[in-house]
Amino acid sequence: MAGSKVSKNVIPKNVVLIKKARVLDDNGRKRKLSGVEKFYVDPSKDFHSHFGVIRKEELSKKPGSVLKCGSEEFVLLGADFIDDYKRIKRSAQIIGLKDIGPIITQTGLNRNSVVLEAGVGSGALTCYLASVVKKVVSFDVDSRSLETARENVKRFGYRNVSISEGSIYDPKTVKQKGFDVLMLDVPEPWKAIETASKALKTGGFIVVYVPNVSQVQEFVKALGIGKFEGLFLVEKTIEVVEREWAVDENRTRPVTKDHAHTGFLTFVRKLF
Q: How far is 177 from 231, CA to CA, in rounded Å?
């Protein structure tokens, strides 16, 4: 699929239904009968749920419309990028939203940026980056991952993505030069340093995403060996911890689920 072109607006324009909370006023004391729920819906079909049925004709109303379904009320919204993104097909563990944020902000990615990516996986990061940058060039060695990533990119209709089979460890794999960022989601990122030295522009970034700190240490150590010594500046290694809170009129406490460690992000800049 390298250099392939896909048409825009491939994903059907789905909608989101937000079921409103239902509260009973019992002599001045409010009792919640049901909570807020969110549904991602294909408006070309009737929406069936245990609450009842909302006909597709109703789903074509303008965003902000309130739709009745049994004893419940739903607010109709148009699905935005993030709603579609959260439902992409997965064949492997993906880099989550809490880690995507720093990847973009710490490297200053923007609409003029060109990104080289290795370890495309399901193509989740690929799709998110494609919505931000000028071009994404991706490589993976796993055929199943390539198939899933290509399918997800096609669904979004991105024309600024190239996905190919190949190993980032082999410098001959990447023909293009002058990349702004090299994103490495591979088990042995130290084997891609030579590729980085040739493919990145002066001032460009390597971003390494790995689950174990021992991998970070091995990568940083390799940057200071032999011909690579002095070529790169290690700016920082971070671990992003997200702690969600439940806040309403009756409680303020952390949500009882663990989203602490997912991986380590190391940011390195090419100096020459």
A: 16
